[in-house]
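Full entry
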Amino acid sequence: MTTGGAGGGPDLDLPPLVDQHCHGVLRGDLTAAEFESYLTESDRPAAAGTTFFDTQTGFAVRRWCPPLLGLAPHCPPGDYLARRRELGAAETRRLLLGGTGIGTYLVDTGLPGDLTGAHETAAAGGATGHEIVRLETLAERVAAGVRAGEGAAAGADAAAEVFTAGLADAVRDAAHTAVGFKSVAAYRHGLALAPEPPTHAQAAAAARAWLATGAGRLTDPVLLRHLLWLAAGTGRPLQLHTGFGDPDLRLHRADPALLTDFAHATTGTGTDLVLLHCYPYHRQAAYLAAVFPHVYADVGLALGHTGPRAAAVLAGFLELAPFGKLLFSTDAYGLPELYTVGSAAFRTALAEVLTGWVRSGAWSAADADRVAALVAAGNARRVYGLSGD
């Protein structure tokens, strides 16, 4: 530990952070309304007479981001947005990402829009970037190719076979360059999926039915399971969305405890499962990380949304999860501010929790530094094989 932090007490001695789950940053300038829309998980405007700046995330942006752009902390939103426009999107991105302390970004590239990719995101902050491939987006891309190609003209059965073969090839090829995979089955169906892999006949029948509908969005539970098991077969870490998200999600279907049977089924496959977000089910996620050697829990997203209460949420993770099983992330998306907020919330929450335990005599300072370094970076480097960064 070192001394002289913002609160006058000991600070944790952290290495460069590994943001093990995040998304790209918007390249263009934003209106005030567009900016506000990224401060919330809601896909709807703020209620009449209110603003999303009046949230823990909005307050955190005003606390941590203005100093990086040459303004005072807690400045009014209008002043902040004016300064942002003055600097421009690229310079704002450089200043904010450069101040996060993040050394490595693992970027889920499966979202649409004019977003920076893994290497462009990292370069803005003088860091290293790696890709996480979103399974459902990959499957939808393969399906679009089958529908547009010769497979569709050969008949439904042939198209289904072309799709399943092409999907297996696409997952295998992605594993050569990506450091991991991600699934949003929690959004598409929920996590209460049958744990065993479907047979080839079951996967082909589901593919035939889905291709025939012409639907672009994959929601079929058999194909979602098939994707999970294809990814598990590569040995790459598999990230699974759990816990809260936007209104497209049904929260009760995103409880990580619903993955217990899948965790049993994947034991011994060589693939680690990384439970993303978890909140408000973070204790369930911590339990799974405690009892399954290949299950890890991610402390991201929730910390940036809970503001000064982030320490309580982080302490909930640390109640039961082994310290080598927790991973930092921001889940930042669209705004570079969300990387700043996510990393600042993590640092301050971790310092508050661990230094409090040191002061009480429960932990030694050396152990606090060691565990902090594991959660900040070391665990992710081990899980994703990032030793060469």
Observations:
- Residues 31-87 form one domain.
- The radius of gyration is 21 Å.
